[in-house]
Amino acid sequence: MTGSSRHADLAAHDAAFAHLEALLAPPSPAATAGPAVRTWGRGLLRLGAALVRENDALERANASLRERVAELERRAALDSTTSSRPPASDGLRKKSGTREKRTRSQRGPSARRSGGQPGHRGHTLARTATPDAVVDHDPATCAGCGAPLSDADRHGDPVCRQVFEVPEPRPLEVTEHRGHHGLCAACGTLTTAVFPHGVRAPVQYGPRLTAWVTYLSHAQFIPEERVAEVMRDLFAVKLSTATIAAMGRRTARRFEGFLDRVAEIIRTAAPVKHLDETGIRIAARTHWLHVLCTPSLTVLRVATGRAHIDEELNGIVIHDDYATYFALQGVRHGACNAHHLRELQALIEIEKEDWATRTHRLLTRANRAAHFARKNDRNVPASLVARISQTWDRILEQAIAAHEERPPLQTGKRGRQKRRIGHNLARRLQKHKEGCLRFLTDPRTPFSNNEAERDLRMGKLRQKISGGFRSMQGARDFANLRSVIATARKQDWKVLQTRAHPDPMQMIPILRF
Fold first, then answer.
1. What is the tens place of the pLDDT at every residue in 196-244?
2. Residues 134-163: pLDDT tens digits?
3. DSSP string of 266-277?
4. Is 297 exposed, middle or buried (CB count within 10 Å of its CB: 0-12, 13-18, 19+)?
5. Neighbour-count burial for 20-39, b at 16+ CB within 10 Å, e otherwise
6. What's the per-residue H, E or C state across 472-502?
7. Alpha-carbon distance 285 to 295, whole Å?
């Protein structure tokens, strides 16, 4: 209701009561009584209509506020088990009125005891037949009579105990390369020897030291000033933060061709590939870190937009429910059911929706069936797949019907009618049923997109420690170096030796994918 209309209605109300006072006044000519009553009645009607309009507006505002409060309460109730938030965001709080742990596993209870299972091969420190050093200890005196003893009095086999220890840090090893000149006796040409690959300056640091520095800064996320401290304490070398940054930049650029080739292999040769993205801060603005990976290869890329996705893909693509992924053409989609389980868990705990409980149970049991079949090198029986598919359809149809029978949300906004969170999830699961259940029919398709999320997690950890990147080039260098580290570990290569390799392209033929 606008201010002008409200004032007009109040004026009508005052006029109506003025006429009422006139009626209660001393008797007046009868001719004036009828018009006064009619005027008063019209005023009351206008006032009643104004109050009705005002009440309607207040009810709409109240409904909108209730929806807003419910939305905020739902956000506050979300944690790492009911959303994509990391466990660190949960803090130290526990859920009110419960004795639950701060984080909960989606696996549920198991009949197996905790710890190592039967048949598991343990790993422990074992003796070596070729120790680097042997120290002999002889008793100085006899324990019986106190007579002196020497090594000549040794008897029987010694009692051996081995201590594994890191070697004492040594100063840097300096190698001088001398390029000699040769004068040809036949033609008189003076020829200078060619230096080894990478030896370019009169004084420079070697590839192993560079690998150590980039490993500490990009694999263990130690800030540059502390990396300088570590190198000074261990190797007695003084490095500036600018030198450390330059080492990372040179190493990242040296691997650019290698990573381009790895990305091409993933796009065209890998039968199953994982896609995901996460936001990162660069120069105080939000950008996006994208990952394209397999269980044996990883490539990270930095982009200004979330929808910057490589479209030259084939095979099976595993991803979350971001709409841009489902728009990819020429691929078969596999949805991340770990996301679905968390969303369903939120509906179970917050909205108390029964269909979410049944869908959560169905997905969990389907995953167990697929895991059991793969463990025994078999396919999930077609009859079981059909039964799961039918149950899936029935639950979601009932959920959608139940939501459509509920009164619509009052948003007060034009455009498409807003749906409830549970309604949207049920429609999404119904629409992308093939991708959600592909893991049942294709043994190559995993249940979740955890492969990509693990590769992205280090980017979030780097941001948590350092707060972001100062420049786009620094973020791209980080993405390249993390790609090399992740790929080396997946290939069972030694990370330091990989980063120190003089020509990364020579490693392409030995890649497993």
1. 988 999 999 999 999 999 999 999 999 999 999 999 998 889 999 999 9
2. 999 999 999 889 889 888 888 889 999 999
3. HHHT-SEEEEEE
4. buried
5. beeeeeeeeeeeeeeebeeb
6. HHHHHHHHHHHHHHHHHHHCCCCHHHHHCCC
7. 31
